[in-house]
Model the fold of this input.
Amino acid sequence: MFEIEGVSKSFGDQTVLHETSVAFEPGKSTVLIGPSGCGKSTLLRILAGLLAPDTGRVLFEGIEMTPGNRIPMRHRIGYVIQDGGLFPHLTSAQNVGLMAKHLQWPADRIRNRIEELAELTRLPRPALDRYPTQISGGQRQRVGIMRALMLDPPVMLLDEPMGALDPLVRYDLQEDLRKIFRTLKKTAITVTHDMGEAGFFGDHVIMLGQGRIVQQGKLEQMILQPANAFVTQFVNAQRFPTLNTPKESS
Amino acid sequence: MSKRSVLRWLCMAWILLGFGSKRIAWAEEREIGIGSKSFTESVILGEVLSHLVRSTGARTEHRAELGGTQILWQALQTGEIDAYVDYTGTIREEILAETIRQGTKIESENDMRSALALKKIVMSERIGFNNTYALGMKRSVAERLSISKISDLRNHPQLELGLSDEFFERKDGWRPLKEKYSLPQTQIKVMDHNLAYRGLEKDSIAVADLYTTDPEIQYYDLVALEDDLGFFPVYYAVVLMRQDLVTRAPQAAEAIMKIQGLISPEVMSGMSAQVRLDRRPETIVAGEFLNKQLNLSLSLPKEGPWANLSKGIQRILSTTGEHLFLVLVSLGLAILTAIPLGIIAAGNETIGQTVLGIVGVIQTLPSMALLVFMMPLFALFDMGIGPAPAIMALFLYSLLPIVRGTYSGLKQIPAAIRESAEVLGLDAKARLKLVELPLALPSILSGVKTAAVINVGTATIGALIGAGGYGSPILTGIRLNDLGLILQGAVPAALMALAVQYGFALLEKRIVSPGLRGT
Done:
């Protein structure tokens, strides 16, 4: 489905991604995890065609991605970023329907598809006719996901999709997203630095550090059998609240 | 809109403008054009020439109050006017300056005549008066101090002088005069010409610079001191006329030359007094003079409050039309040019800085300089005076705000939004149309609004080259010291600027997405 072969990327004299090859499993959810600057976002942006790799190539459905064929490929790739990346001059429904309208879908087909997606992402109907500044952060994120799903692409790329949300909203949306990926059998590639999210979403987790893949597989393996000290350090750096129950006085 | 279709629109708009002005030029081809400069004497003489031409049955148009010698001279050479009155001193100093620099000796009036003939321009004999600088005093004061010539001033070092700015600075003005006559006066105030007359009247100054045909000389009972050392150059009024008029319209050319020797200094300053002090229209004053002097029977417009009122209303209507034409055409062309320029500038940093630099430099050019620069260019298409060069100048001034509005509107779009549009699979053209331009729209609109407001104000200078508009009553009002007339141009111009502001506020409500206006 989605494959990279020997892809690397440098900015100036700083190499943010060393030569890397990965084949993403179709219909499964892969999570790219690692600390800031590890190269996970760069990798995702290369997959989306926003960055050109210095070496290697990106294959989508077996075909190499080039500037010439990038646009039709993008219609088969959904892309979601933090806070949705919505166009502020368009209502939620116009944001979601923009690409379909440009591709000259009939109006009722667009409307039906938007209804369907609002149902799927549990977006309240009144939010459809509001502008991005008039709805909540969680609703913006749901509209962003609807927009990415509009053309029913087989692949979804998500760059820290929960980054801007408070814990309660995040919890709900994580549930919904996992359900959507599983029922629609999307090939999902999600970037996050949150271990909990990685474990919840990821059929397959790839940990990056300093521009290289340091370990991949199930999250449990990384916790139980860390490949090296870096993985141990990253895993242990996740903090959970310690609960001190007050002693009862007798 | 693709780049190519934008270009096509642009070309069409420019061609239309070209044909439009050309058509106007054709319509006026049969008319005989008379010009005048922007001071009363010149306008009166322009009316005299127009009446003389009209008395032969020919049609004429008086392009009154053009901005200065260079503008009239160019218009004469390109055939947009056929004749106007200038002064021998000016002809030597300004029109033939280049000829003199190239080594031709110009001493007598006949030297001027032959130098001008080479340029296919006829110079008439003197009209009959010399309008030069002089020093003037109140008659009573001059007599009390027994001063009649400039050299008499040497004996009165305590006298205070009030000099106009121009006279104080000119190379044939105060400083060389003081040197030539060894004048001892040190108390000098530089002041407006009109204020200097009042200063003389109230004895706050004793001596002022004058023009020898100023009507105020009679009105305030002043005397012009004799230039006994012959310092001031002579400025005899003469007609400059295109040679080809003699063959094209021989009767009109002959009629124009009837002005030779016709007007004495007293008659000239008497006519100026009627216009400036009694507020009578130039065309009537000139016509009455000709009817009496040459036994013509010219029919003249009526005078009186009703005639003035209807003339005022008519003037406001026609100047509004002319002003709107200047503003709308130049703004329309600027929008069609500047938005694509802004888009290109935002797309490429090097081109962007170059474009912004160039339109920024244009903005700093003084409007008068830009106009004078435009005239010879447009003269190539017989459009040297009139609306075309004014529209071009306004168009150039409008570029900066619109280019900058477009450029910064596009540059302000956050990278995340830009990339979202790209990753969605929209091609560059669709991204521009569906996402980037709508987001930049508030900034573009505010640029267009700025340009429009600047245009409404700047269009008033169009009057200097005969483009009409609210500048015409302002110019005439300044010349005649007539506040009412100045207001007839200034008030509607201010109202139009307000209307533009209001109109853009409405437009913004209609076409800018509510999502960009906040909640």
